[in-house]
């Protein structure tokens, strides 16, 4: 049971949508997002073929990335490949549509080549994450000597490994690519028969080791007396395995016990199995099981055992997470802690740890688990000197989406780090429905936009001004979209904004006021900038 005072935070749908893996309910919008991804992949392939020095193609990749980022700002994307076709937001895409669209057909083929079974992107994913996703799909199939996609952030880790059945092909804070499902190589006939094999310690693989014999006796027991005798032998074997540090033996006994417990249900041998489970919850036993956790193909059985142990199990997994260096293992521990949904007290303590990587992991876990009052613990860290911690804190506060979390993010709009500013800008476009929630004024965001030098951050700011939709926000957007007026003092008229900013302002105005803003933008249909004119003409579509 979670500790007293610990439960998931429940922000409004609009706030939670920015962080959760959610599907876009509109199938047409989902297809548009998927086509934007296909376009970006196609542009990256073209750039890689013709050379990175081709500036027009560089601009084409940049524009495709902006289009995809704009789509993702409006909603998440959930895509699966089932029976050779895309399934978007639970709706199968017509095979004819995919076949007749070269971009979608090419993307589907690349998904087959890479063995992709699903692509999930959170709403508001960072452009860098989207570019990494597209780059993976545009790359040639991975060989054994290719370095997998990864990063040094515990919440942006790839789990591409050397094992034949990887759990995931790419993972970042907002992107998850999973492999296509493959049929199971074989079925286990009984709970003990297949599982006991991994417990054998004999070099020749013979099945006469004491562990195998004990597990076989346990599986064939039909009375409490026989089951207790087998458990007595297994307890002694566990003691010996702990002394020798044989984690693989401990894992085999634990998995066989959990499988047998599921098989007998409430049968006559249940009490004996429960006694063995209590023995498996000793701290040293759990530490050995924790060492094996990243290597286990199916972690559900072990995680069920860890859940029975409570917060001591979470403490062990957190310690493993802080020590391990392998990216795949860190991801395994991180996901396991989140799935257990326990240990908030320990995580609150780790937020104050002097080691930066410990703090980063703790705040990432608190945000992923949605722990109530985690915003209070994180807010002092928004002024931390380490950019890595501020980025992790910003992401977690956005995931929480509480009134305090969003208000704290608003204050980071002038942060020195571009990713922190981008997240802060996105927070301006979200509103929690909790008591005391108010829309932030647009003035500070607009002033920050005038100083912004990063294109991705500027686009996020324009999108949030459109979501705010206040009179002040609309006026700011109009000043950007429309050509500048002639100054009354007779000085030279300033040059218009860059075209990508004007196009983004037009789209934000339509989002804020719909058709009511069309008359004010009618003159832009004849704008000298072709991109601006095209955007204005799309208002009538």
TrEMBL record:
Residues 522-541 are annotated as: Disordered. It comes from the Bacteria. This is HEAT repeat domain-containing protein.
């Amino acid at each position: 049971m979670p500790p007293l005072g610990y439960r998931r935070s429940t922000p409004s749908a609009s706030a939670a949508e920015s962080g959760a893996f959610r599907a876009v309910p509109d199938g047409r919008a989902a297809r548009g997002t998927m086509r934007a991804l296909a376009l970006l992949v196609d542009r990256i392939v073209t750039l890689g073929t013709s050379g990175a020095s081709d500036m027009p193609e560089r601009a084409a990749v940049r524009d495709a990335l902006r289009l995809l980022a704009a789509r993702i700002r409006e909603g998440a994307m959930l895509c699966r490949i089932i029976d050779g076709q895309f399934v978007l937001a639970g709706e199968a895409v017509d095979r004819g549509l995919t076949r007749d669209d070269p971009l979608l057909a090419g993307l589907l083929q690349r998904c087959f080549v890479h063995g992709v079974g699903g692509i999930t992107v959170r709403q508001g994913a960072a452009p860098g994450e989207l570019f990494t996703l597209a780059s993976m799909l545009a790359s040639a199939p991975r060989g054994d000597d290719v370095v997998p996609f990864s990063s040094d952030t515990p919440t942006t880790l790839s789990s591409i490994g050397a094992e034949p059945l990887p759990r995931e092909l790419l993972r970042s804070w907002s992107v998850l690519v999973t492999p296509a499902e493959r049929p199971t190589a074989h079925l286990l006939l009984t709970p003990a028969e297949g599982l006991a094999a991994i417990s054998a310690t004999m070099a020749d693989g013979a099945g006469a080791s004491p562990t195998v014999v004990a597990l076989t006796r346990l599986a064939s027991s039909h009375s409490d007396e026989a089951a207790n005798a087998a458990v007595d032998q297994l307890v002694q074997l566990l003691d010996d395995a702990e002394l020798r540090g044989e984690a693989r033996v401990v894992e085999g006994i634990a998995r066989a016990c959990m499988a047998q417990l599921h098989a007998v249900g409430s049968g006559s041998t249940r009490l004996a199995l429960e006694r063995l489970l209590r023995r498996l919850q000793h701290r040293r036993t759990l530490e050995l099981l924790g060492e094996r956790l990243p290597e286990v193909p199916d972690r559900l059985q072990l995680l069920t055992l860890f859940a029975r142990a409570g917060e001591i199990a979470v403490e062990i997994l957190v310690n493993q997470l802080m020590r391990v260096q392998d990216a795949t293992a860190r991801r395994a521990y991180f996901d396991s802690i989140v799935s257990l949904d326990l240990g908030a007290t320990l995580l609150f303590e780790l937020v104050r740890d002097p080691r930066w990587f410990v703090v980063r992991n703790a705040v990432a876990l608190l945000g992923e688990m949605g722990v109530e009052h985690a915003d209070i613990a994180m807010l002092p860290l928004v002024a931390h000197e380490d950019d890595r911690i501020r980025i992790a804190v910003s992401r977690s506060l956005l995931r929480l989406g509480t009134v305090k979390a969003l208000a704290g993010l608003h204050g980071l709009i002038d942060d020195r780090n571009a990713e922190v500013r981008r997240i802060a800008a996105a927070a301006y476009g979200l509103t929690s429905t909790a008591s005391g929630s108010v829309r932030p004024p647009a003035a500070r965001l607009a002033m920050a936009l005038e100083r912004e030098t990063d294109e991705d951050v500027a686009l996020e700011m324009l999108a949030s001004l459109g979501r705010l939709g206040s009179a002040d926000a609309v006026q700011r957007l109009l000043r950007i979209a429309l050509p500048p007026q002639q100054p009354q003092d007779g000085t030279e008229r300033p040059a218009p904004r860059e075209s990508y900013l004007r196009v983004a302002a037009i789209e934000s105005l339509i989002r804020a006021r719909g058709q009511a803003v069309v008359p004010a933008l009618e003159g832009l249909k004849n704008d000298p900038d072709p991109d601006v004119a095209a955007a204005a003409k799309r208002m009538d579509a």
